[in-house]
Amino acid sequence: MNNILQQYGSQFQSASLETISGGLINQTWKVSAKGENFILQRINDNVFKEPQKIATNVRLLADHLTAIESDYFLVSAIKTEGGEELAYEEGNGYFRLTPFVKNSKTIQVVETSEQAYEAALQFARFSRTFSDFDAKQLHVTIPNFHDLAYRYRQFENALLTGNPQRVKACFDEINQIRRYVHLVDEYNRILGNPVFKLRVTHHDTKISNVLFDLNNKGICVIDLDTVMPGYFFSDVGDMMRTYLSPTNEEEMDFSKILVRPMFYHAIVQGYSDGMQGALSIEEENSFSLAGQFLIYMQALRFLTDYLNNDVYYGAQFEGQNLTRAQNQLSLFSAFVCARASLTE
Ligand code: GN1
Ligand code: MG
After folding, report:
1. CA 127 to CA 83: how far, in whole Å?
2. Does the Cβ of 41 fall within 6 Å of ligand 1?
3. Which atom of ligand 1 is nearest to the CA of 22?
4. Considering the domain 2-100, what is its CATH architecture?
5. What is the pLDDT of residues 239-265, one digit of tens each?
6. pTM of the full predicted structure?
7. For ligand 1, mutation pick of 20, 21, 25 (most atoms within 8 Å of CB)
8. Buried b (16+ CB within 10 A) or exposed e, 197-215
9. Where are the domains of the chain?
10. 64-103 confidence digits (pLDDT tens)
11. 113-342: which CATH architecture?
């Protein structure tokens, strides 16, 4: 990584790197150089086909904050000595360097409902801060990223063009997915309804994308590569998907997958508080639908990738994406069962 870091100046000559694991798409390192810490991220340009769009989006948001004199803390990229927001090396790809925020920490697993509340508050605060910014100005860094109808079409294509042995072996999972196809129609209906507002949306609301201070209060959100115009469903739904169960999508013992009602209520409360009255009544009434959409979408995405020989997520062992899909289908069932009592 030396050639990349050198683009940021001589301070990085004897920098040390430590891998940060967790994400499935980009690679991340903590960089220490001359007593200061940074985060370096290699952008996966198979997924982000035009990495410059990420940099442009963050700059547009930063400019907006300056214009409205907001003190919102946006973690922007450090520029290379040549003034670029991305460092590039032939054969090595695109990188972003950001400061490591002092006295901050990230957490990997949501253990308390207070953490869920704080995270939801932060993701809502992020969207709310940009409520006077026209979200349509942002570039779409991954086209159709959270478009449920598009994800369903990809799944149907995989049934036709994917690995035929895998398609055959996934008879049960394919049927489970098909049983809930009405969600796709519901999603399409909703998108045509302007009461669901297009907002600046994060699209990757896992807990490790929130910075906490040392008193466990949220500071801000990070990992802004999927910030795009989007809907309430994406951020709320992905929190449901990743905070409700004490297990994550890698868990292979599906009997451990649970929906924790206190965590559901913490997300609803935190998100509503952070939006400060900006949600429409219809949005306020759609929290549980958001959970369904996003859990279902992730099951679809993992299963589709398995059928397509793991081209998108990769796999460390045979059947990993199938297991992930089964895990998300279990979570989906648990969520659907719990839904009535959650929304009482
Ligand atoms: C990917 O790379 P990571 O883990 O932040 C994916 C998300 C999925 C998630 C599932 C760009 O996010 O949409 O929900 O994996 N990001 C992209 O773990 O596809
Ligand atoms: Mg991400």
Report:
1. 28
2. no
3. 4
4. 2-Layer Sandwich (3.30)
5. 999 999 999 999 999 999 999 999 999
6. 0.95
7. 25
8. eebbbbbbbbbbbbbbeee
9. 2-100, 113-342
10. 999 999 999 999 999 999 999 999 999 999 999 999 999 9
11. Alpha-Beta Complex (3.90)
